[in-house]
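Team,

Forwarding the record for the chain on the shared tracking sheet. I've put the sequence and predicted structure together so nobody has to dig through attachments.
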Amino acid sequence: MRTTDMTPTWGEIGLLTWRLIVSQEIRALQAYRSEIARAFAMAEALNRLSAQLSEAQREERDRIIGAEMRKQGVSA
């Protein structure tokens, strides 16, 4: 039996978060707080680690960030 991974990417979570903010879904955002906090914590970790990445890793980082930004309707 095959399974499909339906886990959203962080770009998709970002888009969902934006939509909750715009629609003022305060209760949903309150329940979602730990995911929002995790996203910002991971962004800081990537910022701090980026100087240690090889050129190939930086290129892959930039490709992934661009793709995830586009999922949110924003250009990188």
